[in-house]
Amino acid sequence: MTSFDRSPSDARRAISRRVILKFTGAGAALAAASLLQACGSTASTSTPVPLATAAPAAPAKPTTAPTTAPKATQAAVMTTTPQAAAQPTGEQITLNIAAVKVAQTVWVDSFQKIWGDYQKQNPNVKLQIEEDPFGGFDVKMLTAVAGGAIFDLIYGWGQWLPTWSERDVIQPLDSFMKQDKSFDITNYHQDYFETWKGKTYGIPWFVSLLYMYYNKSALHDAGADDPQDLEKQGKWTWENARAVAAKASKGTGVNRVYGIQNLIDSGSGVILAIAAPWAWGTDLYSSDMTKSLFADQKWIDAVQFQMDMIYTDHSEPLPSETKQEGGPSFLNGKMLMVFQYPSFNRTVVEGKPQFTVAEVPLPKGPGGRSAPILDNSWYFGAHTKYPDQVWKLNSYLIGPHGQELVVPLGERYPVDKRIKPTTEYPFESVDVINFTSTIGKPIPLIKPEAKFETAFTTAMDAIVLKQKTVQQGLTDLARQADDLLKG
Amino acid sequence: MLGSDGMPSVGERRKSVLHRREAWEGRLCILPWLVGFVVFTAGPMLASAYFAFTKFDALSAPEWIGLGNFVDMVTKDDLFWVSLYNTAYYTSLSIPLYLLIALCAAMALNVRYPSVSIFRTVFYLPSITPSVASAILWLMIFQPDYGLLNTFLTWIHLPTRQWLFDPQVAKLVFVIMGIWGIGNFMVIFLAGLQSIPEHLYEAAAIDGAGWWARLRHVTLPMLSPIIFFNLVIGIIGSFQVFTAAYIITDGGPVNSTLFYVLYLWNNAFQFFEMGYASALAWVLFVVVLIFTFIQFKLANRWVYYEGDLRSLEGT
Q1: Is residue B253 reached through a cis peptide bond, with omega within 30 degrees of 0 on the bond before it?
Q2: How far is B122 from chain A (nearest CA, A)?
Q3: CATH superfamily, domain at A211-340+446-486
Q4: Which residue among A168, A471, B64, B239 is the one 20 to 30 A from B189 at the CA level?
Q5: Looking at domain B73-314, what is its CATH homologous superfamily?
Q6: What's the topology of domain A51-208+375-439?
């Protein structure tokens, strides 16, 4: 029987089913439309995480992610406790915080406490945390803000600052610092503030400085001088570091043990390589940021020195050999001296090396001694509706309680002068931390950071792989960097 | 059919009403897809066509610069040519190699024995492995310092290489890595092989055709539409090679693995040159279109469609 042969009652039943289908279809279409609308709406570009499961913030730069917590800290930090819960005042607000996701339990726990304590003190403020991985975090923020998302407070890293400020993702703090009478700027290391074009965008809540970690046992076994002894004698120079590395290097092929990490191209780009030209007394750019300095003789000498360690001494590996695995190479005894930021401490402890680890400041070069600083600040969203509340939250984070919780986590050097540096592991030294802070130097920033980093990495690859001479590679890089500076 | 009054019969009217209803219900059902297509595919495509003629950083309003992006691309941007060369190199080596290997694998698996389905699954499995996971796996093989390959070469006293970090061979390594993902080609070839009528082989065998003659005069002609399909899809896909290079080398060393789409992505999401990236995307579209057009033109000469008039005329 076809539908056309049906009786009126059959037809009614058929129509009835169709009506049902029609309404079902319409309902489905409406649901789909709602879904599309939701997907397309700017509000949904972020995925807020309930506070109970939030894991905000991260160490200074991407590191391996140990999963167990270290021993209880013996830190000499201030012991202020959060104030008693304040009474609700004013309207109930929600602050959207964009944070970097970390895997380390100790960070997760600490930051849950940091956020939790703040909410206890400020019951009218709800903190909504969105987490994203460090890799690509800068791009995520740019695209999210471009899509209309509003973040009140954003996890920051110095290298992202120029682009974010120029693209209206974040706003300067100068007016807040001026207006808040309770904010005493002299309590902070102002040299470490994150600035761009004369404006302050970030007050670091912790600072990372570059150190050298070394395999004390292997150097001793090789009969090489101990860097700590050389440091005490005032002889810890790049020349002597080269001699130590050459003496301790041994083996061939995949079994080669290298004395020292390749500094100019270890896969970390400028943040590590910068230590070489600084030691030779030059920089990335002229002080007025109008001209690059790569073509200077000092740059050529600094890079040539590294090349000699690679090709003459064979005490540094090719960049390819460390690009992916700088830390593990140290832990498995295949690289004896490495340059790392303090988040490496926990990696060392987790790695349970079968040798004695020690740390020293970076060696002194012909042009002096400097250690790159990596800042970690919280930036203020350019479009926040609650700037005063954000300032209050930031003051809490960089204040004694926030610092008390974050400094022991590993980055070691507090920006708040009232808090003393802390150590936790036997290979750490407060003296080394304090000394390194005196030679700490921020890495110069330029706006097209990504383009510069790409140009820099490519140039160093070409030099180290001998596709270009040192002079030729640096001259080409200077030309590109000058173009980037001109915008 | 008309009724006695010259009007459509009740049955016809009912049919007409029902057809209209079904048409509307059909439209309603495809509406979600249509909205999705317009909003998420056609819309961005049109927008990117406009952005290609602008200076646009995705955060400020686009500024119309006419053909500026295209002129810069051709006259000033060395990396555009480098990335195009890298991609063309990859495509020209990888596609013939993948098709050949996939065809051989399909023929080897086009037999009837009990465990063949297990082998088919094993061969296809890499195709559904997440590309990020497989990229990391390959990195562990080709890592120069302690990768499996160099460890093995050292073990048998052969010279090692830097592989992914040697500009001379890095692209070649990506070609080798891609062999792992031939499963898709293989499955399509296998389906094609199984659709070739058995009587053709029997007739050829009666005529004294050996294995090679059967392959040349039966298998390949009958399979030519499938080869053509895989060729077209493969070339389009190879022009979009991205994930492995993004994860493993990020275009290095010295831009030797800077493939076109990776460079496009860098411009869009690293440098925020959205206008320029859009222009790059449209150039890629045109290049792929030209290649596909040429393939379709050449296909008339070698692709055999059973029952197709042109094919019959050609015989």
Answers
A1: yes
A2: 30
A3: Periplasmic binding protein-like II (3.40.190.10)
A4: B239
A5: MetI-like (1.10.3720.10)
A6: D-Maltodextrin-Binding Protein; domain 2 (3.40.190)
Å from A118 to nearest chain B CA?
33
Residue A34 pLDDT greater than 50, yes or no = no
Check CB contact of A426 with chain B, cutoff 8 Å: no
CA torsion angle for B294, B298, B304, B308 (degrees, to 10)?
80
Q: Report the residue from A28, A33, A450 with minimal CB separation from B271.
A: A450
* ipTM exceeding cut-off 0.85 for this assembly: no
User: With b meaning 16 or more CB within 10 Å and e meaning fewer, what string describes B39-55?
Assistant: eeeeeeeeebeebbbbb
The answer to whether residue B230 scores a pLDDT higher than 50 is yes
| pTM score | 0.74
- Name the nearest CA neighbour of A396 among A201, A170, A99, A183: A183
Identify the residue among B148, B254, B271 best suited for mutation to test binding to A, counting A beta carbons within 10 A and taking the highest: B254
A43-68 pLDDT, tens digit per residue, is 333 333 333 333 333 334 433 333 33
Q: Give every strand in the sheet of A170-171, ordered side by side.
A: A125-132, A93-100, A153-155, A378-381, A170-171
Quick check: A3 and B18 CB within 8 A?
Answer: yes
CA angle A442, A446, A452 (to 5 degrees): 105
Q: What distance in Å separates the CA atoms of residue A151 and residue A158, rounded to the nearest whole number?
A: 18
